[in-house]
Write a structure and sequence with these properties.
The chain is an alpha/beta fold. The strands form three sheets. It has a seven-stranded mixed beta sheet with strand order 2-5-4-6-8-9-7, with helices on both faces. A six-stranded parallel beta sheet has the order 12-11-10-13-14-15, with helices on both faces.
Length: 308
């Protein structure tokens, strides 16, 4: 039987019963524990409380982590109220990532480049903002999956917020080539130009449409589009796949998505969804807040849905 992380209005309770690994966790005393939460709308589906509860238990941190459903159009008021109640930090999810950037007093380069923040930290009257999505992606690929990015050819599909947040962390790994491809070529080209204007190398970073991929082959292909959420595939030429490469879908918990199925049919041996990215970005926020890095492997293993 799982336990509930108890919350005080306007926060909702989050059951951990669905995660057997976490079933022996008990809530910290609200009087002695630092308070954290994830804010979004809707938010009841969030797995973040279970993830952070596991991290806190494993590292001995006195903290609580709850959900906060922020009223639409009232992000700042909701965050102000959380801070007044002793809140130390927040994860931020849809639809408030842009609001989080506007609210913060201090933006990390990751948040500034992405134009969105997924983590906030409160120190006095200062609010610090970070975006750990891209870092979580890269750590999952390089650390958990053992796939090098340095010197490799990487294809990033999509030109929305997920891609925007991934570009700098991917470039920091030193790929031979990072190509951003999108159905609308102009959108990909404009996104890439923003990063080139900030100093990215045009000989490494490029953007265009799916139809311009030609005969190029890539070592790592990352689906940062929302197509898999709607069970839709992408119009990619068969030449892009490498049998010994990695196909990575940021969507998680959907099993073998159309993108991953296409990769499998093309002979790609290594397939992964975004569950590791989810857990690793949570771990980055945890380190930022608490100064200790949790072991992510048990949580990833517990949350993984087989790709079949």
């Amino acid at each position: 039987m799982g336990v509930n992380v108890q919350t005080v209005s306007p926060f909702t309770s989050v059951t951990i019963a669905a995660f057997p690994l976490f079933s022996d966790l008990t809530p910290m005393s609200a009087a002695s524990a630092d308070r954290y939460a994830v804010i979004g709308n809707p938010i009841s589906h969030s797995k973040s409380p279970a993830i952070h509860a596991a991290f806190a238990q494993a590292t001995g941190q006195a903290m609580t982590y709850t959900t906060l459903e922020g009223p639409l159009g009232q992000f700042a008021a909701a965050v102000d109220a959380f801070r007044q109640q002793g809140g130390r930090g927040l994860n931020v999810t849809i639809p408030f990532k842009l609001d989080a950037c506007a609210y913060a007093t201090d933006l990390a380069e990751s948040a500034r480049a992405a134009g969105a923040a997924n983590a906030l930290k409160f120190e006095g009257d200062r609010c610090y903002a970070e975006n750990f999505d891209g870092v979580g992606l890269v750590r999952d690929i390089t650390h958990n999956l053992g796939q090098a990015i340095a010197g490799r050819r990487v294809l990033l599909l999509g030109a929305g917020g997920a891609s925007r947040g991934a570009i700098l962390p991917l470039l920091a790994q030193g790929p031979d080539r990072l190509l951003v491809a999108n159905r609308t070529a102009d959108k990909a080209a404009a996104l890439v130009q923003e990063f080139i204007d900030r100093g990215a190398s045009a000989s490494v970073l490029a953007g265009g449409g799916f139809d311009a991929l030609g005969q190029d082959r890539f070592d790592v292909i990352i689906n940062a589009t929302a197509a898999s959420l709607s069970n839709l595939g992408l119009p990619l030429p068969s030449s892009v796949w490498s049998a010994d490469g990695l196909a990575y879908d940021m969507v998680y918990g959907k099993g073998l998505t159309p993108f991953l199925r296409t990769a499998q049919q093309a002979g790609v041996q290594r397939l992964a969804d975004g569950v590791g990215m989810l857990v690793e970005q949570a771990a980055e926020a945890f380190v930022w807040w608490r100064g200790v890095r949790p072991n992510t492997r048990p949580v990833i293993d517990q949350m993984t849905v087989p790709l079949n």
